[in-house]
Specification:
The protein contains six helices and 15 strands. By secondary structure, it is an alpha+beta fold.
Length: 277
């Protein structure tokens, strides 16, 4: 059995869709909905809110194989996916950092094609590769700063498996990896979070509506951000601007937030694994 869960205080009814079959979900007092169902390791799933038949992706989706408007997919890295056990990280102080946009770094615009140019970066004297945002955003091409699913990796780049391969390859070349992240806004295409809960605030910024970090129910929103940020860069490459070195997490971390509300168990569909450092 696989446990699926989602925080959704706004709808009165939430149902789970797994591979086209609908299941009821139980609501707890903290507005988390849960259901335990049989699912394949790569099942497609999503949530149906109230009477709207549209299947919405999981806000904590680990993978979006068909884009940000479609069903999510369960994903975990293969047991032998990580091949960089000899990599122990390094300080960025005094190092040379190369900011890299996956979509424009090579004609192919993928993680795998970027791997083929790592020797070029080594010859330049680069110590760290700083990836511009690779979280899931609407469309095929973009800067990545309009991300809407902060836990998923942009599929046209190669998805989470492609990012694993790139990180392994960087470490084989003695290159550290940083990820550029942004948490202060969401993109306009594929942002279904407000359907689930008060993820956005009454304020705004030059890029649109602000993320709710201080209004009502902000604790869960901040938890959503902090667990995305701390969970690892393979299934969580979110969109606070800056270069974020990620560290490996082999088990799902407990949720935390700046106000330290009671910890919650992370949903089993949110799979954590990353070694960006």
């Amino acid at each position: 059995m696989t446990e699926f869960s989602v925080w959704a205080p706004r709808p009165g009814v939430v149902r789970l869709d797994v591979d086209g079959t609908l299941y009821p979900m139980d609501r707890s007092e903290d507005d988390w909905w849960r259901a335990d169902v049989e699912a394949r390791p790569d099942s497609r799933y999503g949530f149906v809110l109230d009477d709207d038949p549209k299947v919405l992706p999981d806000p904590r989706s680990p993978r979006q194989p068909d884009g940000v408007h479609e069903r999510s997919q369960l994903w975990r890295p293969a047991a032998d996916a990580w091949t960089d056990d000899d990599w122990h990280g390094r300080s960025i102080e005094g190092r040379v950092i190369y900011e890299l946009h996956i979509g424009t770094f090579t004609p192919g615009g993928t993680f795998d094609s970027a791997i083929e140019k790592l020797d070029y970066l080594v010859d330049l004297g680069v110590d760290f590769v700083e990836l511009m945002p690779v979280n899931a955003f609407g469309g095929t091409h973009g800067w990545g700063y309009d991300g809407v699913l902060w836990y998923a990796v942009h599929e046209p780049y190669g998805g989470p498996d492609g990012l694993v391969r790139l990180i392994n390859a960087c470490h084989r070349h003695d290159l550290g990896v940083l990820i550029d992240t942004v948490f202060n806004h969401l993109g306009p295409s594929g942002n279904y979070l407000p359907r689930f809960g008060p993820y956005l605030s009454s304020g705004s910024n030059p890029w649109g509506e602000s993320v709710n970090i201080s209004d009502a129910d902000a604790d869960e929103v901040r938890r959503y951000i902090s667990t995305a940020h701390s969970g690892g860069c393979v299934t969580s490459t979110p969109t606070v601007c800056g270069s974020t070195p990620c560290t490996h997490s082999s088990t799902p971390p407990r949720s935390t937030s700046w106000r330290k509300p009671p910890p919650k168990r992370m949903p089993s569909q949110g799979n954590w694994a990353g070694r960006c450092r």
